[in-house]
Write a structure and sequence with these properties.
The chain is of the alpha/beta class. The protein has helices at 37-43, 45-48, 65-80, 95-106, 128-137, 148-160, 217-220, 225-239, 257-265, 321-331, 379-391, and strands spanning 51-54, 57-60, 117-121, 140-145, 167-171, 189-194, 244-251, 272-280, 283-291, 309-316, 342-347, 356-364, 367-376. Bound molecules: S-adenosylmethionine (SAM).
Length: 394
């Protein structure tokens, strides 16, 4: 299906973000039922002392740092059998939120990809992303950290769960660097993840008053805050563009998105950028993801194996959904065929030069299951469609 306006316009279109649609990820274990503290208190004696029962429901005092750690411990135990501990004065990660980010990262995974290996920048004293990433997705990990005490504590979590074969923590010697000194020559990663120190000074760390915040300075603060930290990451990512498919980070401030996207846009090498919002209760975080690769996975080029990227999304079947979809497609010169039950879209480049993209939507009541397969060619279209679809995730 050939359209008149191919190749696509250079300017990136803005894609609507619907906050209500970006709550917990559709595959999140707590999507429809939050953790039941009363049940967990019955099941785990150690946890019971942190729970008060009111009208049959269990409540935890999140202003108490010990209770915060107890919740992380019990959830990791109950969900994954992880035996977890960490010093009380370090940043203790909320499990649902960290898992929400990893689930978004997993949306970028090619379902054919075996042996997924990831890199966590600044793993802290918990090693939370590698622990969750291994147990939930079976991804193996390298993690970096600058603080010796945090490395020791993360290593204890790895050892007590017999994960030394699957997770390796490396010391970053220079706090000015992100990937340099961590990624070894020739080493390949599917994705890098990061929860950076958000703030530029301790005075800025005014936080959620409903939750205790025990942390050491390097967990919350770095010169220039998260914009500077991720700017360095972006600059260094160029060097590793052949070794990493997806670079990503969580962000604590919405205002950081704009300067960071500008920085990505100004790079001498073209990259494709995705963003999302994570919302957990009243707290929001943002996700930024970029890649320099445009033809599926270049890692397999050596073997001359054609890799397609396939993703399935469950989206809301609202009246405007498909017309928005159609509009994006048309702006790329793709025509769109609709059928009341099954939506099919295939695209070929005007001159027939290898643009391979297929999309199929299966409609059931108020739900659409969209399967997208990208096989090379115009990655901009794929990037826009994926961003749009993610903004409508149920
Ligand atoms: C906000 S904490 C995140 C900890 C953990 N990943 C989590 O999500 O709870 C940021 C971590 O990055 C570490 N860090 C700061 N600069 C770093 C650098 N240049 N390279 C690696 N880690 C760094 C800090 O010591 C801290 O442990």
């Amino acid at each position: 299906m050939i359209g008149p306006s191919f190749p696509p316009p250079k300017k990136r279109r803005k894609v609507e973000q619907n906050v209500q649609d970006s709550v917990l990820h559709p595959r999140h274990p707590f999507k429809d039922s939050p953790p039941n503290f009363a049940l967990l208190a019955k099941k785990y004696e150690d946890f019971a002392s942190f729970v008060t029962i009111k009208k049959g429901r269990g409540h935890v005092n999140f202003r108490d740092a010990e209770a915060v750690r107890a919740v992380t411990k019990v959830l990791l135990k109950d969900m994954y059998g992880i035996d977890f501990d960490m010093p009380l004065h370090h940043l203790c990660p909320p499990v649902p939120q960290r898992l929400n980010y990893l689930l978004w990262v997993s949306d970028f995974l090619d379902s054919n990809q075996p042996d997924v290996r990831c890199l966590d920048i600044g793993t802290g004293a918990s090693c939370i992303f590698p622990l969750l990433g291994y147990k939930h997705f079976k991804w193996t990990w390298v993690a970096s950290e600058i603080i010796a005490e945090s490395i020791e504590s993360s290593n204890k979590n790895i050892e007590r769960n017999s994960l030394t074969e699957n997770i390796e923590v490396r010391k970053q010697i220079s706090r000015e660097h992100i990937f340099e000194g961590v990624i070894k020559p020739g080493e390949k990663f599917f994705a890098t993840v990061c929860n950076p120190p958000f703030h530029s000074s301790l005075e800025q760390t005014g936080h959620n008053k409903k939750r205790a915040l025990e942390a050491i300075a390097s967990e919350l603060v770095c010169p220039g805050g998260e914009v500077q930290f991720i700017s360095t990451m972006i600059s260094e990512s160029l060097q590793f563009s052949e070794q990493v498919i997806w670079f990503s980070t969580m962000l604590g401030k919405k205002s950081s998105l704009k300067p960071l996207k500008r920085k990505l846009n100004d790079l001498p090498q073209k990259c494709h950028v995705f963003e999302t919002e994570f919302q957990q209760g009243t707290q929001s975080r943002w996700g930024l993801m970029w890649t320099f690769q445009s033809e599926g996975s270049r890692f397999n080029k050596a073997e001359e194996k054609k890799i397609t990227r396939k993703q399935v999304f469950i989206v809301e079947n609202s009246s405007g959904a498909w017309s928005r979809f159609e509009k994006i497609c048309k702006s790329y010169g793709l025509s769109f065929t609709a059928n009341p039950m099954i939506y099919n879209l295939t695209g070929t480049e005007k001159d027939g030069n290898g643009f391979q993209f297929k999309c199929q939507g299966l409609c059931s009541g108020d739900t659409l299951a969209i399967t997208m397969t990208f096989g090379g060619g115009n990655f901009d279209l794929f990037a826009d469609l994926v961003t749009w679809i993610q903004s409508r995730l149920k």
